[in-house]
Each structure stands twice: as structure tokens, then as C-alpha cells.
Amino acid sequence: LVRFSSDFDGLNHEELCQWLASNGFESIGSDLPININSGYDFRTMSDNDWSKKLGISHGIERKKLRSTIEKALNEKKNISENLSNEWVTQWLEDIGLNQYKYEFLRRKINGMMLNSLTFKEVRLLGIYNPLHQCSLKRSIQLFRQQEYHPCFLKSHANINNRRNVAFWTVADVASWLKAIKMPQKNQICQK
């Protein structure tokens, strides 16, 4: 997130275009209508205006942009802002939801967005399975409890130390199942 020393509302058209480009909204910044004269004009546009005038029709994209603007206005920095969308896709692999990586990457879901996902947005990302929704919800809860530390999942955890199972990756669970000679879920279904 790029913060300008000046007030966001006071940005002129050119500065606003630069701000949009430097915060991952290059296509919006390059096509920003000239009649949007300030950051304030841009910030106070309705979702309908953003959709009609700027082509921002997807709810998640609007939320990401509004969240980014809110963070620029807010002096207090949230640690989750440091986590990129690439980190989020790796995290999805670690928690066993890698089938959703493409959509999260396409929608540029970063740590800041992950932290504020609603149930409706989870469904917009294509997660309809209640078990997957629950897994995502619990993983986000752990993410918050660990204060957004990027390494909170213990990769290759000691499978004999059962106190840390909440932080095992899906690969660690598979290793543990193998160690106790229990078939993995895909092997159980084949029998």
C-alpha cells in the first residue's frame, strides 16, 4: 500500500492516477475520466458510479479498492496489509483449499482482503462447499489469533508433538496419516 504524504482527498487527477497505479489498480488509473478532479471526488463516488464510469462491476474489486482507500486515509497500519495475494494463494495450499487459488489470485485477494471477507464474498469466490467454507473461516480465525504472522502455519511440524496440530499444514496431516498407517481420504474413497 502506497501512502502519500498529502491528504488522499486533496490528490489532484494526475496524483490520483499515480496513486491508483502504485496500489495495483493500473487499469483504473490509466482510464480515469478527467472530470474526476480529486481524491475526494473519487472516494465519494457510489458503487453504481464506479460500475458505470469506471467499469468496476465486481463487488470484491470495489471492496478491495474501498479498503485500500480507507487504509490510505487511516494512519494506523494493519499487519495484514503486508501479505500479498501470492502469500494468500500459498496459504490456501497449506490449508488444503488450493482448488480456489486461481480465483483468489484473479481477484487479487491479499491479507487485507482476506481479513475482511464476508460470507457473500466467499461464495462470490466460488466456495460453495460448507466444509470448505468452515475450513476457510477457521483458518482466518487462526490467522487473526496469530496477529497476521505470515509463518503461523508450522510447515513440516513434528508429528509427535500433538499440541501444535492446529498449525499443521495439509501436507503435515498427510504425513501424520501415513505415519500412523491410516489411509488418506482419497484412498478411503477408492475402497
Helix-strand blueprint:
Blueprint: H1 13-22, H2 26-30, H3 39-43, H4 47-54, H5 59-73, H6 85-94, H7 101-106, H8 111-115, H9 119-124, H10 130-145, H11 170-179, H12 185-190
InterPro entries: Liprin, SAM, SAM/pointed_sf
GO cellular component, one term: presynaptic active zone
Organism: Myxobolus squamalis
How would you sum up this structure, described in words?
- The chain is mainly alpha-helical and about 190 residues long.
- The protein folds into two domains: about 10-80; about 85-180, DNA polymerase, domain 1.
- The chain is built from twelve helices and no strands.
- This is Liprin-beta-1 (Trinotate prediction).
- One of its GO terms (biological process) is neuromuscular junction development.
- InterPro entries: Liprin (IPR029515), SAM (IPR001660), SAM/pointed_sf (IPR013761).
- Keywords: Coiled coil, Repeat.
